[in-house]
């Protein structure tokens, strides 16, 4: 019997473009389900809290400064803020004056333990100045407490799943930032907020990206992404934020701090270039080559290639049509491959990559080993302290490069085979950009726009 014409051609358009497989408990249950994610994250968070409690107890009970206090890297932040609050902001980049104030914050600190200079531009000093009016202990608790809660809230808003709260609070990158006392939770929150706001509030996003220039080695690719996407309002807000913050910092502290800052940064890069930095904790291609014993010229060349690959990935992701979640994850990942000066606590930005890719996979379908890759990425910031020193091999930049390659390949597959259709509830993943979208956007077979399997949708 000859089939009716409408039956013969019902799926002709669908056959041209393969569909995403429906992932989930109905067909292919994965061992890393929601309950296990919550269980593992809760166990890790409990372990981290126990570590902090035990260490603080030992510090309080120890004599003669036998143990270093936690969050010691925050001392230059507070010391610079203290100098600025007392009218001596220009001295923040002069280490003798800074160290004298650091001794007030951490009396057990000595030069034998190494130096902790102030390496931020004057715009950052203007931002943290209010901390100088607070006692050191209160300032560090408020700074780290507020930034980790903002980071967790931003990750929850990105993933749009309740379990993201627990995963963000237990994230080893956040834990490392807290025990070290760095500013990476702040920079990661700014980047994540900007990426969340870009489509609906481009001016707010541009302000967030402009504030990121407080740590310029992480911010260089954001204007490139905005330029590729044609986000002119965000780009204008980015430029205006930089101009206003530079003007205010110059009015507050003068021209001298800018000149001193550039001189200090030049010295820092000279130290890194000579291989005298803590290379085991630097997840850069330059550190990989230097630890491997390769010549400095080769290490510099490889770092330039890494930066070029990162910029190319951003152009590829942000010029063409693809899901916004993949764009955001690619940009955050690429920012970690540009500068030779990067430390393991900066891998807090892995949280942005994980959050956006998880959001994408939940609305478009999980591929094989996606969850395993995210699970590997989650504890990776601790490798600089726990693994690399024992291996004498800096493998962390390879993880970042592999993650960037995976994201680019997922974008390529989406453009080649599968339409970019977000879940109906996922309005912020729409690009809102000026580039033409593909004309064959449609739901995957067996999925309504709510992402649930439809009844009677079998072939």
Automatic annotation (TrEMBL):
> What topology does the record note for this protein and the membrane?
Multi-pass membrane protein
Show the ranges annotated as biased composition (Basic residues): 437-451
Reply yes or no: does the keyword Transmembrane apply. Answer: yes
Region (Disordered) location: 419-459
Q: Which InterPro entries match?
A: GT87
The listed locations are: Cell membrane
Sequence intervals crossing the membrane? 37-56, 133-153, 165-198, 204-228, 235-259, 297-317, 324-343, 395-412
- Residue stretches of biased makeup (Basic and acidic residues): 419-428
One GO cellular component term of this record is: plasma membrane
**Sorted UniProt keywords:** Cell membrane, Membrane, Transferase, Transmembrane, Transmembrane helix
Source domain of life is Bacteria
One Gene Ontology term of the molecular function aspect: hexosyltransferase activity
Family per similarity comment: Belongs to the glycosyltransferase 87 family.
Q: What is this protein called?
A: Membrane protein
Origin organism is Burkholderia cenocepacia (strain ATCC BAA-245 / DSM 16553 / LMG 16656 / NCTC 13227 / J2315 / CF5610) (Burkholderia cepacia (strain J2315))
């Amino acid at each position: 019997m000859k089939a009716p014409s409408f039956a013969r051609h019902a799926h002709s358009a669908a056959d041209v473009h393969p569909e995403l497989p429906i992932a989930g408990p109905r067909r292919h249950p994965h061992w890393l389900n929601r309950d296990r994610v919550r269980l593992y994250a809760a166990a890790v968070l409990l372990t981290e809290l126990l570590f902090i409690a035990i260490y603080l107890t030992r510090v309080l009970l120890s004599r003669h400064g036998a143990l270093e206090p936690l969050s010691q890297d925050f001392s230059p932040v507070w010391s610079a803020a203290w100098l600025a609050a007392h009218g001596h902001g220009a001295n923040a980049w002069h280490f003798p004056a800074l160290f004298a104030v650091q001794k007030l914050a951490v009396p057990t600190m000595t030069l034998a333990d190494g130096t902790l200079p102030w390496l931020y531009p004057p715009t950052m000093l203007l931002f943290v100045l209010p901390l100088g009016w607070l006692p050191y202990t209160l300032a560090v608790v408020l700074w780290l407490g507020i930034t980790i809660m903002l980071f967790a809230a931003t990750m929850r808003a990105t993933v749009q799943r309740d379990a993201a709260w627990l995963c963000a609070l237990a994230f080893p990158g956040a834990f490392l930032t807290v025990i070290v006392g760095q500013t990476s939770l702040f920079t990661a929150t700014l980047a994540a907020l900007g990426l969340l706001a870009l489509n609906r509030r481009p001016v707010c996003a541009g302000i967030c990206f402009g504030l990121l220039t407080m740590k310029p080695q992480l911010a260089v690719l954001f204007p490139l992404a905005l330029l590729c996407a044609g986000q002119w309002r965000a780009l204008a807000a980015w430029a205006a934020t930089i101009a206003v913050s530079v003007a205010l910092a110059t009015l507050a502290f003068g021209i001298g701090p800018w000149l001193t800052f550039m001189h200090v940064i030049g010295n820092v890069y000279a130290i890194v270039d000579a291989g005298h930095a803590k290379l085991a904790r630097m997840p850069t291609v330059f550190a990989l080559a230097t630890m491997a014993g390769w010549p400095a010229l080769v290490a510099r060349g490889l770092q330039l290639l890494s930066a070029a690959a990162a910029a190319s990935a951003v152009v590829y992701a942000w010029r063409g049509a693809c899901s916004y979640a993949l764009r955001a994850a690619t940009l955050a990942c690429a920012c970690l491959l540009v500068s030779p000066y990067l430390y393991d606590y900066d891998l807090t930005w892995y949280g942005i990559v994980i959050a956006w890719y998880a959001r994408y996979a939940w609305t478009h379908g999980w591929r094989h080993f996606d969850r395993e890759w995210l699970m590997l990425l989650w504890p990776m910031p601790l490798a600089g302290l726990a693994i690399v020193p024992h291996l004498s091999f800096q493998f962390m930049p390879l993880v970042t490069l592999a993650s960037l390659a995976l994201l680019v390949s997922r974008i390529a597959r989406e453009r080649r085979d599968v339409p970019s259709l977000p879940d109906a509830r996922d309005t912020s993943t729409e690009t809102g950009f000026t580039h033409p979208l593909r004309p064959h956007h449609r739901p995957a077979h067996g999925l309504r726009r709510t992402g649930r399997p439809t009844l009677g949708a079998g072939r």
